[in-house]
């Protein structure tokens, strides 16, 4: 719920509550005042009639038959309300009446009770007009409250909306702080100042992290490459031909160094993906079907060594995707290597590619964990594997970078492992 809507609701509730209370009090006040006027009129008529009777004069003739009623039988004295039929309108009309007993006089020899009446139609009409005016005032008041709130939203809240738009479009990769202006409203000015300070810190920290990542990748990769080359040269030394223990130790050291180099490259790639260090301008049209065929051809020795059969189904022609060439190659390499390495001798790998999906399905051991966990870092199918366990995590980050969907599905029938990348 927006802030304007919330405040408007409170304003409307307060206004309606006050209106109902004021209308009720005003109605009761007007009703009481009008009835008091009617009662005073009836009392004045009673005094006039009593004076007439005391002088020995006849009772005055009423203007209407309903206004005065005489009866020799006793009636309840005082004020009361009644309904009488209006012969013209054909409906019941409310009356206020006053009943009193005439004093005995020369013209009145027997007791007599007189009832004076006054129509309350005029009173009801006045109350209806008052209520109509109150309802109209409420409508105008509510409309004014809503209008002024929206006017305030457009005028006073304009700096806040500008700040939100700047935050939505802010890109840390531009290496520039927000640079929000200082509005005349103090609260919005403090907010923009805090956001400007925060964005400057983010840019500074991001630049430091980017430089550290690049320096660390460069400075550590070079010594690793030198160590790996020296170990390979050392393994070719004639002195080791007769020293099997030393040759074995050096071979294990070389294997660990190669593994460390692969781990370093994978972590560097993950860090660059998380920090969005691949500029969109570096993306080029990539024919994914051709890149997939090239990658499968390069993996033929590995497929033969592991006795795995790979079948490729690609729907021609496929549109090119705007991708970073290195990321596209890394995505295919990690998915295919995962399907081959976690297979068994005589197993199968089925690859399907069309304009909507890339699906790689392979046979393999049954799973005992949630397939979604294998997208986590250093999570492996087999704990004894020499793989660093970063392949699927890298694939997931590449898909997230380009807005692709990726999922891992395991089917019990045939122990099929399926990795599916949705392009749209």
Structural description of this entry:
The chain is an alpha+beta fold. It has 3 domains: 3-153, no CATH class; 187-274; 281-422, Histidine kinase-like ATPase, C-terminal domain (Heat Shock Protein 90). The chain has 9 helices and 11 strands. The protein has helices at 3-54, 121-155, 158-168, 186-235, 244-274, 288-298, 300-306, 325-341, 391-402; strands at 68-71, 78-86, 91-101, 113-119, 284-286, 309-314, 321-323, 348-353, 357-363, 405-411, 416-422. The strands form 3 sheets. Strands 6-8-9-11-10 form a 5-stranded mixed sheet. It has a 4-stranded antiparallel sheet with strand order 1-4-3-2. The chain has a two-stranded antiparallel ribbon with strand order 5-7. A hairpin with a 4-residue loop joins strand 10 and strand 11. The longest helix is centred in the first third of the chain and has 52 residues, at 3-54. It is rod-shaped.
Pick out its properties:
transmembrane, 3 domains, Heat Shock Protein 90, kinase, phosphoprotein, 9 helices, 424 residues, rod-shaped, alpha+beta
Principal-axis shape equals: rod-shaped
Order of helices and strands: HEEEEHHHHEHHEEHEEHEE
Question: Spans with pLDDT under 50 lasting ≥5 residues?
Answer: none
- What is the C-alpha radius of gyration, as a whole number of Å? 48 Å
Q: Mean pLDDT, as a whole number?
A: 78
Q: How do the strands line up in the largest sheet?
A: 6-8-9-11-10
Tell me about the biggest sheet?
A: 5 strands, mixed
**How far is the N terminus from the C terminus?**
31 Å
Percentage of residues in DSSP E strands: 15-25%
* Structural class determined from secondary elements: alpha+beta
- Helix count, per DSSP? 9
**Helix fraction bin:** 40-55%
Number of strands: 11
Number of domains: 3
